[in-house]
Design brief:
Length: 257
C-alpha cells in the first residue's frame, strides 16, 4: 500500500502508512486567540479520524484541546512527557488513550513504530509557565520512515538524532511577521534538508494562520515561505523531491523499497 501524506494546514498532516492513519498536531480551528485562518478551509470531519495523533509540544497551536476533543474514542494520543501536568485539560480527554513520551521512546501502533526524537524549541505551555516538557519530533517507521519535525530550530546533531528517513515534513515559516529562536524558516529548513537527505520533503507550518489586524505587516512572511523553500531546497539538496501542497492536498512520495 503506498504511503500517502495530506496537509491540512499549519502543522496538521495525515500520514497513511501500513494501513495505519497518523495525525500530526491537530488544529482544526478557524480562530485561535489572536490568530485567524487566512488560507484553506478548516479540515473536514474525516481529518479527525486517526489511529494515533502526535503532539510535538505544548504551544496552543500544536496542542489544541478543542481539536483533540474531536478525535474518536480510543484514538492513541502521544504527548511530550509532563504534558498533563502542564495542561490539565488533557486529563478531561478520557476518550483518548494518552501516552507521555520523551526522546528515544519507541511506541508500537499497528504495524508502525513511532519514535520520539529531540527538537530545539521552547516546550513550555506559556512563556512564563513553571512546567517544562520536551519539544519533540517524531519518526514514523513503516513502509517509509517519515520525520515530522514539529517546531524546531536547526541544531548540529539533527541528522544523527533523527536518523535515516525517506520523507521529511519540515516547518518553513510560522504564524507571525517574525520568527523567534527555535524555528526553521525556508533557508534553515533547506539546510536541514541537506543534512537529513530524505528522498522527499513536504513543507508545513506556514501560510495558514496570521494575527488579526496584521495583514499589512510583512505579508511576504505569510505567503512566500513555501515557494522560497522549494527554491532553496533545489540549491541545498537538489536530489530531494519537494512537494509543496495546497491545503487538503495529498501526495504519495517515492520511498525506498
Amino acid at each position: 500500500m503506498p504511503v500517502e501524506i495530506t496537509w491540512w494546514g499549519h502543522a496538521t498532516c495525515t500520514l497513511e502508512d501500513s494501513g495505519t492513519r497518523v495525525l500530526t498536531d491537530p488544529l482544526f480551528a478557524r480562530r485561535l486567540a489572536h490568530l485567524r485562518r487566512r488560507r484553506g478551509a478548516p479540515p473536514p470531519p474525516e481529518a479527525a479520524v486517526a489511529d494515533v495523533a502526535l503532539v510535538s509540544h505544548l504551544h496552543a497551536d500544536h496542542l489544541h484541546l478543542p481539536s483533540l476533543a474531536l478525535l474518536a474514542p480510543g484514538t492513541r494520543l502521544l504527548v511530550p512527557e509532563g504534558a498533563p501536568r502542564a495542561v490539565p485539560g488533557l486529563r478531561r480527554l478520557r476518550h483518548l488513550l494518552l501516552t507521555e513520551v520523551a526522546p528515544g521512546d519507541r511506541i508500537q501502533v499497528g504495524d508502525l513504530v513511532v519514535r520520539a526524537v529531540p527538537a530545539r524549541h521552547d516546550g513550555r505551555r506559556l512563556p512564563v509557565g513553571p512546567h517544562r516538557s520536551p519539544a519533540l519530533g517524531y519518526v514514523v517507521e513503516g513502509e517509509a520512515r517519515t520525520y515530522f519535525a514539529g517546531d524546531t530550530g536547526l541544531f548540529p546533531s539533527m541528522a544523527e538524532e533523527v536518523g535515516p528517513v525517506d520523507v521529511a515534513l519540515l516547518p518553513v515559516g510560522g504564524w507571525g511577521p517574525y520568527l523567534g529562536e527555535g524555528h526553521l524558516d525556508a533557508g534553515r529548513a533547506a539546510q536541514a534538508l541537506a543534512r537529513l537527505s530524505p528522498r522527499s520533503a513536504v513543507p508545513v507550518h506556514y501560510g495558514t494562520y496570521w494575527p488579526i489586524g496584521m495583514d499589512a505587516v510583512r505579508p511576504h512572511e505569510f505567503h512566500a515561505p513555501g515557494e522560497e523553500f522549494v527554491r532553496l531546497a533545489a540549491e541545498h539538496a537538489p536530489l530531494v523531491s519537494v512537494h509543496r501542497l495546497g491545503h487538503g492536498e495529498s501526495v504519495r512520495p517515492e520511498v525506498a523499497r
